[in-house]
Amino acid sequence: MNGPFSIANWRAWFNAAPLFMRGYGQTLLISLWGLVFALIIGILAGVALTGRNRPLKLFLRGYMSFFQNTPLMIQVFILYNVLPKLGVRMGVVTVGVVGLALYTGAYAADIVASAIRAVPWGQTEAAESQGLSRVQTLVFVILPQAVKVGLPSMTNQAVNLVKNSSIMAVIAGGELMYVADSWSGSNLIYGPTFVMTAVLYLTICLPISLFARWLEKRSVRNV
Amino acid sequence: MITFEGVHLSFGKNEVLKGINLTIATGSKTVVIGPSGGGKSTLLRTINFFEKPQRGRVVVNDHDLMKAASKQLYRLRQSIGMVFQSFNLYPHKTALENLTMAPLLLKRGGKDEIIDRAWENLKSVGLEEKASSYPSQLSGGQQQRVAIARALTMNPEILLFDEPTSALDPEMIQEVLDIMEKVAGEKNITMIFVTHEMRFAEHIADRVLFLDGGIIVEDGTPNEVFHHPSTTRCAAFLGRILH
Ligand SMILES: Nc1ncnc2c1ncn2[C@@H]1O[C@H](COP(=O)(O)OP(=O)(O)O)[C@@H](O)[C@H]1O
Ligand SMILES: [Mg+2]
User: Would you call A66 an interface residue with chain B, using a CB distance cutoff of 8 Å?
Assistant: First the structure.
């Protein structure tokens, strides 16, 4: 059998599989740290957006507008090519993590802010009537309820983040998409490469998606 | 003791409290009645400083609320409980946890002591067996009883009730009134109820205030205000709510 999916092509891909697994590991690493920092940005910015500090809110709106309305590729390009000229040098993994965190954080902030707003005002009043401070009210009463509201959308953002990590291929990120692109280009074996690469992304994203769906069902039941 | 001295409070151009002068004795039970929009909720919410008057003074247990910093306010609020029309239980906590969360966080006593107190209060509102139920698993009447127990578990000196039975289905009103009557009879807590439950008011109130248009129009015993109102405004209002 000839053509892109010949036995020889499959055999060649499986021989190169360790290379792909390294790329897979890199994708996981960048995604995981990207997600951690995106969540931190999202929670802090989301809380601030529901607060009363107007200059801070204006700044955050600016940040979110920029990162939500420009292509991630350009953001990564700026981090990788422009910042070094201004004296800020980052390794390729760091660029990946920072890029994904800033991009996803801009969406996470919106999710957190609207989840907080979805918690009835009476909850804040009940907590404050008991003498809880603003921070205690937020941490012990509002956020635990907001998590339930926001978690499904946040999980979808996590899936997007993993897929978006493929953008690192444009700066030789060493992650899965980069390996797939460069290996298939130099060996001219595209069929198995992209099928298997898709399968590898699927092994990360599908469980997260299913988790999101499960959460959504559960939260409908528990209201 | 709670003292209002010439309290004026406006929301924008809308003056809601128009010079309130009022002294409420420690341990007394006061019922506030009056037409919707008359400022009853605002009056209550001024006592725990949810609303801030523009003029006048509110003094609670010798603390001038107008001068208190926010840290002090949090502390003062610990001994001023509030029971809301819409219960506002914490939906992510069980009934028992609703009672213990704030006292534990704010260290209103030792841990075991707080938990004992919570059980005792849950028992006294007749919901011991619902300790591990979530609010969504309780009826409205049960939720309000938990909310009353939650307020009591803080060991308050003052308890404010803002239309605690108005959101309830008719068949659940009495169970909540019974609990409130019991609490009012047993505890030496200063209590202020905004409610139009006349029979309840006649049973427990030392004093009834009729608040209309941001002014205290009548101030007397339940018998005086309900049966011998001195103003036509109050008489007309009573006529309306008694059909
Ligand atoms: N947070 C608020 N902002 C603006 N107006 C308010 C607010 N709370 C109450 N009001 C107004 O104040 C007036 C008195 O309200 P309220 O104290 O709730 O009366 P009552 O409890 O007697 O029905 C009403 O006209 C109401 O619209
Ligand atoms: Mg009211």
Answer: no
**B64 and B161 in one domain?**
yes
Could you please state the CATH topology (level 3) that the domain comprising A7-221 is classified under: MetI-like fold (1.10.3720)
Any idea of the CA torsion for B142, B143, B145, B148, to the nearest 10 degrees? 180
The answer to whether position B3 is within a domain reads yes
pTM, to two decimals: 0.89
Whether B30 and B66 map to the same domain: the answer is: yes
Residues B96 and B74 in one domain: no
A126 touches B88 (CB < 8 A): yes
Contact A131 B77 (CB under 8 A): yes
- Closest Cα to atom 16 of ligand 1: B39
Tens place of pLDDT per residue across chain A (223 aa): 678 889 999 999 999 999 999 999 999 999 999 999 999 999 999 999 999 999 999 999 999 999 999 999 999 999 998 988 998 888 889 999 999 999 999 999 999 999 999 999 999 999 999 999 999 999 999 999 999 899 989 999 999 999 999 988 888 788 899 999 999 999 999 999 999 999 999 999 999 999 888 887 876 655 4
- Contact B114/B103 with Cβ under 8 angstroms? yes
| Inter-chain CB proximity B102 and A125 less than 8 Å | no
Q: How many CB atoms lie within 10 A of CB B184?
A: 19
Interface test with chain B among A119, A124, A128, A130, by most B beta carbons within 10 Å:
A130
Domain that holds residue B193: 1-79+157-169+188-243
Inside any domain, residue B9:
yes
Between the CA of A72 and the centroid of ligand 1 the distance, in Å, is: 48
The type of residue at A129 is: S
Strand bridging mode B215-220 / B207-212 = antiparallel
What ipTM does this complex have? 0.94
Question: Are B60 and B91 found together in one domain?
Answer: no
Interaxial angle between packed helices A121-129 and B70-77, expressed in degrees from 0 to 180 and rounded to the nearest 10: 80
Annotated domain spans of chain A: 7-221
The domain that contains B227 carries what CATH number? 3.40.50.300
Rounded to the nearest whole angstrom, what is the distance from the C-alpha of residue B181 to the centroid of ligand 1? 27
